[in-house]
Specification:
Layout: H1 2-5, H2 10-18, H3 24-37, H4 41-44, E1 45-48, H5 50-65, E2 78-81, H6 108-115, E3 120-124, H7 158-165, E4 172-176, H8 182-187, E5 191-194, E6 214-219, H9 222-233, E7 249-253, H10 263-278, E8 282-286, H11 289-296, H12 298-316, H13 323-330, H14 337-358, E9 363-367, H15 376-381, H16 383-402, E10 406-411, E11 418-423, H17 428-443
Parallel strand pairs: 2-3, 2-4, 7-8, 7-9
Antiparallel strand pairs: 1-3, 4-6, 5-6, 5-10, 9-11, 10-11
Helix pairs in contact: 3-5, 6-9, 9-17, 11-14, 12-13, 12-14
Length: about 450
């Protein structure tokens, strides 16, 4: 039975606990045993929290037996990206700069999921300080892509995606600053939700660029993402029943996002559009010029803030970093403060223009990533290629961060490709309903 559990959705596992068919302790132990015996264990998990997980599972078992479950995921285990503080357990954000860092308190979202009864399986590997979309990390470990362990899995929530894709967690929580939930989700055929910046509290989360940092789930299904979002947001779960695409209007964003696509990414996207149209969505295509201008501001907006946060720490011990990631941080040093302020003021104008141009649509659609995962050895051999491939990989997902949107990526059915649905800020509940309908259409 444990092998079956490893491929089930978190929601279905929760329903099994509710019905008395699954014991939370047996379930959690099965995942822990699978982790310990897996050939890629040390590439996926930085630290396993066995006793803490079993203790939480035992408490969940008691609540289930008493008919006092705290919610649909009570007793369903979860993995955590290694930038969420866990009291008494090292949180190092994939970097030797933070080696031995042991927080004394849990991050606020860690507390929220603990209070909801989810046993914590452990901390997963990630891109160093979360500043790359590829998942390559020779400093700690590079998790394996589910389709080819010799290729990168996407980042920076690389281990989060790998833990779910390889059946070593039913659900994982990651972060997304420029695509770090969505890229590893798409390359591992998962669902990934980027939430609106500022919506879910970042207290106790190792920062990258706080004005863009967001928290979101990586999951097998939209239902799982919706249930996890509700716990992270401390709000009721979105109602997905009866969700339909009939009568919806969607816009394919032609600006920037469709250029120079990998043939498989283009194929998956076009197949997805056809499936959504068959399900009743009206799909238009148009450019939105504000997006292209905003993309030109990304360098100063992201790198200046990242270096402002991490520059002193990096320069105190630069040699312990993976050079391409260190150099990306250092690029932020070239921007004076007035350029950064000017860029943010212009971005606010562009966000308003984007909102006006897309106001009549239920969602904006683009391919989640224009690329497919590259070989680890090629990226390690050529730093210039690493930098160029990383920027291209993050190109499409970064649109959602720049425009301040919430966004959901869904597998298209073509391996390692995804369709991304973007919606207005703080409109996650409606986006997840659309996503549930789209998910059905894509699987039809």
């Amino acid at each position: 039975m444990s092998d079956t559990w490893r491929s089930m959705s978190a929601a279905d596992l929760g329903r099994g606990i509710e019905a008395g068919r699954i014991c939370p302790v047996t379930l959690t132990a099965a995942f822990l045993d699978a982790i310990d015996s897996h050939p890629h264990r040390d590439r996926i998990y930085a630290r396993v929290m066995r006793q803490r997980a079993l203790d939480a599972a035992a408490a969940a078992r008691g609540r289930a037996q008493a008919g006092l479950r705290r919610g649909p995921l009570d007793g369903v285990p979860v993995s955590w990206k290694d930038l969420f503080d866990t009291a008494g357990v090292a949180t190092e954000a994939g970097s030797a700069l933070l080696k031995g860092r042991v927080p004394t308190r849990n991050a606020q979202v860690v507390r929220r999921l603990a209070d909801a009864g989810l046993p914590p399986l452990g901390k997963t590997h990630m891109t160093e300080l979360a500043f790359s979309g590829l998942g390559l990390n020779p400093v700690t470990a590079t998790p394996p892509c589910i389709h080819d362990p010799d290729r990168v899995p996407g980042g920076s929530s690389s281990g989060s995606a790998a833990s779910v894709a390889w059946g070593l967690a039913p659900l994982s929580i990651g972060s997304d600053t420029g695509g770090s939930v969505r890229v590893p989700s798409v390359w591992n055929d998962l669902v990934g939700l980027k939430t609106t910046a500022g919506r879910i509290p970042l207290s106790g989360v190792v920062p990258l660029a706080e004005k863009f940092d967001t928290i979101g789930p990586l999951a097998r299904t939209v239902e799982d993402a919706a249930l996890a979002f509700a716990l992270l947001d401390s709000t009721p779960a979105p109602d997905l029943t009866g969700a339909s695409l009939k009568g919806t209007r969607m816009l394919v964003l032609e600006t920037v996002a469709l250029a120079d696509l990998d043939p498989a990414a283009a194929q998956g996207f076009e197949q997805a559009l056809a499936a959504l149209a068959r399900a009743g969505a009206r799909i238009d295509r148009a450019p939105v010029p504000a997006v292209a201008e905003a993309m030109d501001l990304a360098g100063v907006l992201f790198t200046a803030e990242c270096y402002g946060i991490w520059g002193d720490t990096i320069e105190a011990n630069p040699d312990v970093m993976f050079a391409p990631v260190r150099d990306r941080f250092r690029a932020g040093a070239q921007y004076p403060a007035h350029d950064y302020v000017r860029a943010w003021r212009r971005l606010e104008v562009l966000r308003a223009a984007y909102g006006a141009a897309t106001a009549g649509y239920d969602a904006v659609l683009i391919p989640t990533a224009p690329t497919l995962p590259e070989r680890i050895d090629r990226l390690l051999a050529d730093p210039a290629y690493f930098a160029a491939f990383n920027l291209k990989t993050l190109r499409n997902t970064r649109i959602g961060n720049l425009m301040g949107l919430c966004a959901l990526t869904l597998p298209t059915g073509v391996p390692m490709t995804g369709v991304m649905m973007m919606a207005r800020p703080r409109d996650e509940a409606r986006l997840l309903r659309l996503g549930a309908a789209a998910e059905r259409a894509l699987k039809a």
